[in-house]
Amino acid sequence: MNFPKLLNPEKSVIFAFMGLKFLFRIILLLGIFLKADYAFAQDSLPMPECGIASYYSKKWDGRRTSSGEKLSSKKNTAAHRTLPFGTLVRVTDPENCNWVIVKINDRGPHIKKRIIDLSWGAAKELGIIAKGLAKVEVEVIGFK
């Protein structure tokens, strides 16, 4: 059968395949250049939060967090209800002006009025071990 040059079935399939390859490459490059993460854009970081912080007891050491990491009282990590895992936050205690940078790797706290649960090491560095709870400011500073 003779087909017009533009409707040749063999060439149409080849051109369609080449078009899909091209489209796939464009999408791949956009993903690489835009680094499409679920994290926030650096220029639109969330506003700092103020509230109550608590900390994990050492008895939780070695257990898995929501992100799958093992909890360690020696690392500066924390639990937050909404921030993406890997978010770096500065937690400041305005009473003593101490601050610590922690990585979010868990979900919580599970008590309504608290905004963050710190690892034991981060709480010690912040100086809230003796108090147990402290009013803090939580500010997002980046992503890991």
Question: Can you offer a commentary on this structure?
Answer:
By secondary structure, this protein is an alpha/beta fold. The chain has two domains: about 5-35; about 40-144, RlpA-like domain (Barwin-like endoglucanases), CATH 2.40.40.10. Helices cover about 25% and strands about 30% of the residues. It is built from two helices and six strands. It has helices spanning about 10-35, 120-125, and strands at about 50-55, 75-80, 85-95, 100-105, 115-120, 135-144. The chain has a six-stranded mixed barrel. A hairpin with a 4-residue loop joins strand 3 and strand 4. The mean pLDDT is about 85.
String of helices and strands:
HEEEEEHE
Could you name the CATH class of the largest domain? Mainly Beta
Q: Whole-number radius of gyration?
A: 25 Å
Described by the principal axes of the CA atoms, the overall outline is: elongated
Summarize the structure.
By secondary structure, the protein is α/β, with parallel strands linked by helices. The chain contains two helices and six strands.
Topology:
Blueprint: H1 9-34, E1 49-55, E2 77-79, E3 87-93, E4 98-106, E5 114-118, H2 120-126, E6 134-143
Parallel strand pairs: 1-5, 2-4
Antiparallel strand pairs: 1-6, 2-5, 3-4, 3-6
Keywords:
single chain; 144 residues; alpha/beta; Barwin-like endoglucanases; 6-stranded mixed β-barrel; 2 helices
